[in-house]
Amino acid sequence: MNRLRWIAAAVVTASVVLVVGLALFQPWRLLTRSVVDEPLPAAAATVTGPTPDEGAAPTRPTPSVASAAPRVIGEGRFVDGEHATSGTARVLELADGATVLRLEGFSTSDGPDVVVWLTDQPAGGDDWHRYDDGRFVPLGHLKGTDGNQNYAVPAGTDLSGLTSVVIWCDRFDVAFGSAPIRSA
Fold first, then answer.
1. The domain that contains 120 carries what CATH number?
2. Residue 141 domain boundaries
3. How many CA atoms lie within 13 A of 7 on its CB side?
4. How far apart are CA 158 and CA 145, in angstroms?
5. Which of 1, 10, 42, 72 is the most buried (most CB within 10 A)?
């Protein structure tokens, strides 16, 4: 009888460890992919064309929309961290002064609680856990494992000293990949 209790306790313990391990690590996410294909961001468009004060004819032409292309502040290519990660990271300044991080041709693994940060830590290297040791600016959860994605940089963010972008797994404090941001 004592042996049965021990076996039952071992089975219950193993089951709890398995359930907790699956919930924590979510290993099935290594097999999932999601694609996001956002267009290149643009500042609010301005409308040009005749106005009523200009004496427009009754068959008035359709106004045109003009917008300035974003200016590249910095960019770099992703290098692998804990997971294979590739693509280009670009920090863009829009015509209205807003700043956006754009990931282009991006690809990485899926995982639990994966976020995008700008950081003062150098990209690459062997220490994939250091990115939360210094200054970092969180930009939000990763939108997809693949594609072209835009992340708004909070207004008023001081970009000086922020030298890289990191795809960070908050649950395990590890970088999936990082990209240096070099001035364009």
1. 2.60.40.200
2. 32-41+69-183
3. 4
4. 28
5. 42
